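Chapter review: from sequence to fold.
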Amino acid sequence: MAATPRPPAEPQWSLPRGLIVLLSFAGAVVTVAGLRSSADILGPVFLALMLAIAVSPLQGWAGRRGIPRWLAVVVSLVGVYLVILLLAVALAVSVARLATLLPTYQDAFTELVDRVQAALADLGVGHPQIRAVLDRLDVGAMFGVLQGFLTGLVGVFSDLLFILVLLFFMVIDAAGIPDRAQAASTTRPHIMSALSTFVRGTQRYLIISTIFGLIVAVIDVGALYLLGIPLPVLWGLLAFITNYIPNIGFVIGVIPPALLGLLEGGPRLLILVIVAYTVINFLIQSLIQPRFVGEAVGLSVTLTFLSLVFWTWVIGPLGALLAIPLTLLAKALLVDIDPSAGWLSYLISTKAVPAPSRGQPAHHEREETGDADDEQVP
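The token string follows.
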């Protein structure tokens, strides 16, 4: 009679698990506090890192075709520098034009408030209650969140010299990364595999999001121009930027032109702007784009939203734009880098987990020997 296989023995911990959890939580709190206190430096550093990762495939493409490496580095630097400078100038000009435009709508906003007050009074709502609520509204306050968001981004680009210099060194170093990574993978394959997965996923996510962001921005600018909304190029730029913000980017991008439509043409124009944005952005960002970036990201919807909130809180508006790449980096450093933590990937990923076939050892059983195998690699 065949012996019944015994379940794998659980690893013996030198400390109680509860104490390990508490110590890990305390370490996470200290780490997050340190990240937040240095947000002014980390924001530009993360931006430069993501840009260097985004343009690094150009160097590999040039090397495969016999193009000199120095020429590929120069082309990469010139291209990314132009993008940064154009985006910084566009943001600065847009914020200045927005600040100039808002006071011109004060009369229209006051008239709109009076109409709403009269309509509510006809419905039997008391005048004091109406006045107490409406007195708190102001057209400047309604656009204050948007202006603060754009101003925060301009603040990041205000340290432009630091970003450009740091990006220069990162792009140059990226030319030798493949050879060094291959050498390091001989002794630490899991670590290099995790970092390589992060780089590839980030590249696909940034490139695909940029392409779809440009498509959405061009279509939105055309729609807003036809509807007669002021500053259509600004709102197209905002749509392009918010395309990198997961889950709520579309909502942030539609609010300013919708409010301007309300002030320009009343509720009818407001509805037209919302319908146009919903059709354009829902079709592209919710149906088409996720099919391309799903494999690159592989994060659950809940974790994606929480990462947006967390990184925005840690490093400011730039954290909202880089939430997905930063979460992929954290996943690589905390989960993918450790074979024994592979089970966490199943909990935070949207990918289906194949059931092990009969007689095949479970994933966690194979993980227990992963560290020993690593030590045997010369």
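Two observations follow directly from the output. Residues 189-227 form the longest helix (39 residues). The chain has 19 helices and no strands.
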